[in-house]
């Protein structure tokens, strides 16, 4: 990946990360992400353009509101920088290919959903449901450009399969996870399967392994009990990231060991 492509991905990630901060704050409250313009939650004063530059403005203001002196959470620049890093990693993995737009979109959605689920234990329909048509269009366009219709068919089957698996788990044990996880599973299954069956298998498995290890860690340290509600959405998304990054390689290695 050239430094120009990497820098472009980083800048785009910073801008998208700034917007995701708005999404994470407003969507759970049922507010519009388009209007009104961003303002300080303490004094209500509109944030000036020069104070809305990703990461740099927070550093320049030293984490304080220019008008009322209220503390500005460090999570804002961390989300912006983290999204930028994630965009660079996705671009490095996918390359300048037609499917890059789909996986950058998925990365942005993943950041928003993970943070909202951690904050509210919800995966809002306002983000999850529109992702179905958006990713369908982007992956269809990528299959058309690549001439790889098998990948699109695989995505449809993979999305349906993972949706069904999660649906059956919710039916069998409703206290274990919510239907929001089921709806998210269809999106992740489709995106992973488009890359290959290995990406789907590794991504789905990694979610349960990583989520299970985290839950056990909380139980051992006494920070949670068996009745504690632990959001699983973030682990589904982290697992999907593993599937995108190394799923095909790890799956091929696993099959080689079997044979």
Structure at a glance:
The chain is mainly alpha-helical. The protein is built from nine helices and no strands.
Architecture overview:
- The chain is mostly helical.
- Helix content is 71%, strand content 0%.
- The protein contains 9 helices and no strands.
- It has helices spanning 3-26, 56-61, 75-94, 100-120, 125-146, 149-172, 179-195, 197-220, 233-258.
- Helix 1 packs across helix 3 (75-94), helix 4 (100-120) crosses helix 9 (233-258) and helix 5 (125-146) packs parallel to helix 7.
- The protein is globular and about 65 Å long.
- The relative contact order is 0.10.
Give structural attributes.
259 residues; mainly alpha; globular
**Helicity, in percent?**
over 70%
Number of helices: 9
Anisotropy-based shape: globular
Distance between the amino and carboxyl termini: 34 Å
Strand and helix map with partners:
Blueprint: H1 3-26, H2 56-61, H3 75-94, H4 100-120, H5 125-146, H6 149-172, H7 179-195, H8 197-220, H9 233-258
Helix pairs in contact: 1-3, 1-4, 3-4, 4-5, 4-9, 5-6, 5-7, 6-7, 7-8, 7-9, 8-9
């Amino acid at each position: 990946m050239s430094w120009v492509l990497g820098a472009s991905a980083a800048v785009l990630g910073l801008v998208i990360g700034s917007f995701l901060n708005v999404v994470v704050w407003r969507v759970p409250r049922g507010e519009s992400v388009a209007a009104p313009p961003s303002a300080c939650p303490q004094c209500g004063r509109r944030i000036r353009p020069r104070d809305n530059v990703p990461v740099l403005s927070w550093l320049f203001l030293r984490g304080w509101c220019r008008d009322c002196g209220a503390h500005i959470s460090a999570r804002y620049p961390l989300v912006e920088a983290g999204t930028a890093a994630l965009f660079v990693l996705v671009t490095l993995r996918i390359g300048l290919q037609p499917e890059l737009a789909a996986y950058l979109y998925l990365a942005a959605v993943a950041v928003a959903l993970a943070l909202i689920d951690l904050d509210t234990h919800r995966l809002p329909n306002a983000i999850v449901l529109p992702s179905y048509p958006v990713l369908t269009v982007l992956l269809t366009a990528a299959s058309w450009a690549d001439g790889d219709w098998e990948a699109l068919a695989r995505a449809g089957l993979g999305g349906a399969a993972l949706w069904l698996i999660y649906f059956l788990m919710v039916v069998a044990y409703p206290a274990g996870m919510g239907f929001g996880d089921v709806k998210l599973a269809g999106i992740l299954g489709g995106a992973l399967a488009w890359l290959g069956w290995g990406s789907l298998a590794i991504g789905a498995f990694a979610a349960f392994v990583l989520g299970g290890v985290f839950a056990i860690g909380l139980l051992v340290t006494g920070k949670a009990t068996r009745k504690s509600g632990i959001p699983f959405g973030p682990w589904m998304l982290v697992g999907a990231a593993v599937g995108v990054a190394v799923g095909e390689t790890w799956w091929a290695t696993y099959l080689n060991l079997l044979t």
